[in-house]
């Protein structure tokens, strides 16, 4: 059973390998982080990005509202559906007993401090003013928007909206996305890159809704002001991309040279670019990220990107032999389930509770 | 040709099914870096480049599953465990035994799908709803570390929740340690599994890296995992976990390829050429400000399991599907969380539900510094909760509370039926936290043409 240990390149050494990778990075400067805040780069890239509205500074009440435990919306939509509504299960009369009595407040709650906190904040003047501002800006952008804050979009909470996407038409969708997203909560509380840069202020960004095709989104890596690599972002093989590889590389290289290199103040960073449909020869920048370990490198590894050799690594596409179905992204699923099943540390204690609760519940039926 | 398939005679071991797709799902669990991915690589031959570090990132994209075929030599004289072998999913169903001097034929005996567990999105949600997606689990324990490591016990607990009784324990990395230490570690494992669901599980020493004893793993999968009992004649039901638009932007409509949903079949059989429905389907505002909810109806034009083309698909592994759907509807994983199945057989699309619920007294887990976890207050009118229904998540506003009953308005139409169990979560300290359980008593639903 004693064997040659040198074969363990990616089992025993797996962890170490990852730790080593962190050593490739200098600590991020506050300036580099701030450069990637939406409001820092948008004014310079207005002509080559999606039209957006920035609400900054945000009212203190609104930020406190986002940080408070529990979710109560400042307003909710009275949603009407087309078509016949029928009652299923139970008896039809049960539903009339439940007619909303309009009473608002803690219901039969026991005055729980957090719950009333978020309830109070949801109706605070600052939140009301912000909601009015949000409505004005949505209108200015044509009625349909997607949203983000300074560093992240609440993509992990898209399950919460009326359409199941990031498309928002009003305050209810926007507030539930912001309050339901783990990414937004992390950015506000701890900072997207683990630090809150001095001088950073929370900002809310509304962008005109665009039906983007994920296959045409690419992450470009810039090291010491030179474009070193381009990666496909969506984990799926798109047969048509291979034939377009040269064209994609040429477009993005030219876009970098013409619009980004002289405009973006950091030395090393990443940017996401979207190539619009054929015929409309246009490239948009969608986002900027610093050169940091916690930034997703998609089909490259940081080890490759940070290698000293200065050559251009080119465009990398998702290979044909791999199935997109086999890959999944916890990025978009982070808030789809309670922490009890996503967080290893909680799983141990949850199993027994789930069993207990299920049996109690079954017993009561 | 698909008409010839008699679903009543089909089993997970039918060659027509097993030749092209996995029919048994096996979760792989164990502490980080204990060798899960190396083992799956050794068994499935999946030569995926690990594109980049999968570990220790907040944002990770992981290889979620891989399929493997298990073979057994038909020569009775061929000694075990060498008479077993495992290969990639695209391998032919029979070939000459590779053991020198053996005249036997290696024949396909199992086709399994390894699912990275319990981190997989699909599993996380179904853990709460108790759906049985996994048929067995492989628990990896590194022999060169003390047992248990934190995730070893946590993952085993997760498996207990899923009521998985068929567990095979693999004592990995035995090549790195002396025989004495291996025996020591073996006793630690035995002590650890005592009193757990894995108490009677076999413990197999292996080295996934050196492919030492992986034939024994193949043998145990064959011998000790019971063939799952499936009802192939039930109405088909698939949970969508990804969906794609594979077209080049700007193409003419007549050149477009239909949308490509993919996911896991829970029950029944889906055939090429069959008409299927996807719920809740299309949800949009019309000009009058009213929401339209309309299921998608389409035809299955292609079925794929990894790179194998299928004429029909049964539960097991992940199935990709070519359809005639408008591809933009599938763009960017838009159908995730939907259910797909035979027309007219899917649950209703609900907009409000009345539930009978139970709340935990406190949040689960141990708070830091020995403090007790926060108390869970009663449901309050107008608060927004997260519901886990089947494999999907949806928001819900509490519209009324009476004793153990509450009325909830769903944030979007959701496919479910009265009697179904749901998990309730509330936002607490920057996470959704499980606060209780409920059962749908009754609901208001949108009547659809196919209901």
From TrEMBL, chain A:
It comes from the Eukaryota. InterPro entries: CDC123 (IPR009772). Residues 97-115 have a biased composition (Acidic residues). One of its GO terms (cellular component) is cytoplasm. Residues 91-117 are annotated as: Disordered. PANTHER family: CELL DIVISION CYCLE PROTEIN 123 HOMOLOG, D123 PROTEIN. Belongs to the CDC123 family. This is Cell division cycle protein 123.
UniProtKB/TrEMBL annotation, chain B:
InterPro entries: eIF2G, eIF2g_C, eIF2g_dom_2, eIF2g_GTP-bd, P-loop_NTPase, T_Tr_GTP-bd_dom, Transl_B-barrel_sf, Transl_elong_EF1A/Init_IF2_C. GO terms for biological process: formation of translation preinitiation complex. The gene is GCD11_1. GO terms for molecular function: GTP binding; GTPase activity; translation initiation factor activity; tRNA binding. It comes from Coemansia javaensis. It catalyses: GTP + H2O = GDP + phosphate + H(+). One of its GO terms (cellular component) is cytosol. Belongs to the TRAFAC class translation factor GTPase superfamily. Classic translation factor GTPase family. EF-Tu/EF-1A subfamily. Keywords: GTP-binding, Hydrolase, Initiation factor, Nucleotide-binding, Protein biosynthesis. Transmembrane segments: none annotated. SUPFAM superfamilies: EF-Tu/eEF-1alpha/eIF2-gamma C-terminal domain (SSF50465), P-loop containing nucleoside triphosphate hydrolases (SSF52540), Translation proteins (SSF50447). This is Eukaryotic translation initiation factor 2 subunit gamma. Residues 21-229 form the Tr-type G domain. Pfam families: eIF2_C, GTP_EFTU. Its EC number is 3.6.5.3. It is an enzyme of class 3 (hydrolase).
């Amino acid at each position: 059973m004693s064997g040659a240990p040198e074969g363990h390149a990616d089992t025993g050494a797996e962890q170490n390998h990852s730790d080593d990778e962190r050593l490739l990075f200098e600590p991020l400067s506050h300036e580099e982080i701030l450069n990637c805040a939406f409001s820092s780069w948008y004014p310079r890239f207005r002509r080559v990005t999606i039209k957006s509205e920035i609400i900054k500074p945000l009212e203190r009440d609104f930020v406190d509202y986002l940080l408070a435990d529990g979710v109560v919306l400042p307003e909710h939509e009275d949603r009407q559906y087309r078509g016949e509504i029928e009652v299923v299960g139970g008896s039809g009369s049960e539903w009339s007993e439940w007619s909303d009595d309009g009473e608002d407040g803690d219901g039969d709650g026991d005055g729980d401090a957090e719950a009333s906190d978020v309830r109070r904040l949801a109706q605070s003047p600052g939140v009301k003013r912000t909601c009015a501002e949000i409505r004005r800006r949505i209108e200015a952008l044509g009625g349909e928007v997607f949203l983000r804050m300074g560093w992240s979009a609440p993509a992990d909470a898209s399950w919460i909206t009326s359409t199941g996407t990031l498309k928002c038409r009003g305050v209810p969708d926007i507030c539930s996305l912001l309050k339901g997203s783990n990414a937004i909560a992390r950015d506000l509380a701890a900072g997207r890159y683990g630090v809150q840069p001095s001088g950073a202020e929370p900002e809310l960004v509304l962008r005109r809704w665009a039906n983007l095709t994920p296959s045409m989104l690419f992450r470009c890596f810039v090291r010491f002001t030179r474009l070193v690599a381009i990666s496909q972002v969506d984990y799926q093989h798109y047969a048509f991309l291979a034939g377009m590889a040269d064209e994609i590389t040429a477009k993005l290289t030219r876009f970098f040279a013409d619009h980004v290199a002289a405009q973006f103040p950091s030395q090393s960073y990443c940017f996401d670019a979207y190539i619009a449909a054929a015929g409309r020869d246009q490239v948009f920048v969608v986002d900027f990220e610093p050169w940091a370990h916690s930034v997703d490198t998609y089909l490259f590894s940081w080890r490759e990107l940070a290698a000293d050799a200065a050559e251009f690594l080119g465009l990398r596409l998702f290979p044909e032999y791999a199935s997109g179905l086999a890959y999944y992204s916890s990025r978009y699923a982070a808030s789809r389930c309670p922490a009890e099943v996503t967080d290893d540390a909680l799983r141990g204690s949850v199993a027994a509770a789930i069993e207990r609760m299920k049996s109690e519940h079954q017993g009561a039926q | 040709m698909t008409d010839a398939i008699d679903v009543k005679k089909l089993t997970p071991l039918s060659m027509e099914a097993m030749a092209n797709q996995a029919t048994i799902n096996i979760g792989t669990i164990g502490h980080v870096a204990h060798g899960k991915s190396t083992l799956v690589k050794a068994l499935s031959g999946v030569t995926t480049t690990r594109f980049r570090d999968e570990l220790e990132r907040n944002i990770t994209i992981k290889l979620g599953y891989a399929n493997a075929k298990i073979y057994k030599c038909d020569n009775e004289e061929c000694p075990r465990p060498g008479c077993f072998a495992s290969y990639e999913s695209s391998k032919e169903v029979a070939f000459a035994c590779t053991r020198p001097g053996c005249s036997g034929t290696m024949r396909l005996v199992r086709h399994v799908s390894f699912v990275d567990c319990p981190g997989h999105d699909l599993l996380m949600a179904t853990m709460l709803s108790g759906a049985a997606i996994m048929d067995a689990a492989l628990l990896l324990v590194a022999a060169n570390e003390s047992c248990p490591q934190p995730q070893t016990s946590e993952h085993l607990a997760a498996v207990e929740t899923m009521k998985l009784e068929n567990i095979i324990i693999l004592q990995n990395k035995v090549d790195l340690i002396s025989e004495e230490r291996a025996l020591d570690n073996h006793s630690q494992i035995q002590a650890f599994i005592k009193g757990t669901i894995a108490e009677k599980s076999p413990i197999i020493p292996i080295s996934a890296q050196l492919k030492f004893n992986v034939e024994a793993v193949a043998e145990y999968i064959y011998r000790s995992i019971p063939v799952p009992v499936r009802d192939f004649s039930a109405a088909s039901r698939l949970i969508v976990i990804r969906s794609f638009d594979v077209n080049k932007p700007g193409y003419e409509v007549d050149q477009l390829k239909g949308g490509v949903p993919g996911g896991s079949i829970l029950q029944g059989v889906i055939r090429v050429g069959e008409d299927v429905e996807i719920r809740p389907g299309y949800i949009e505002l019309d000009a009058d400000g009213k929401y339209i909810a309309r299921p998608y109806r389409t035809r299955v034009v292609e079925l794929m399991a990894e790179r194998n083309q299928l004429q029909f698909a049964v539960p097991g592994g992940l199935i990709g599907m070519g359809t005639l759907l408008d591809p933009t509807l599938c763009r960017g994983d838009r159908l995730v969380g939907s259910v797909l199945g035979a027309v007219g057989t899917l649950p209703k699309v609900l907009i409000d539900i009345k539930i009978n619920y139970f709340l935990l007294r406190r949040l689960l887990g141990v708070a830091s510094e020995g403090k007790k976890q926060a108390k869970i207050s009663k449901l309050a009118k107008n608060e927004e909760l997260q519901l886990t229904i089947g494999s999907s998540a949806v928001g819900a506003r509490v519209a009324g509370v009476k004793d153990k009953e509450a009325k909830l308005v769903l944030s979007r139409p959701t496919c479910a039926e009265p009697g179904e169990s749901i998990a309730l979560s509330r936002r607490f300290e920057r996470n959704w936290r499980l606060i209780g359980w409920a059962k749908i008593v009754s609901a208001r639903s949108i009547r659809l043409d196919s209901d």
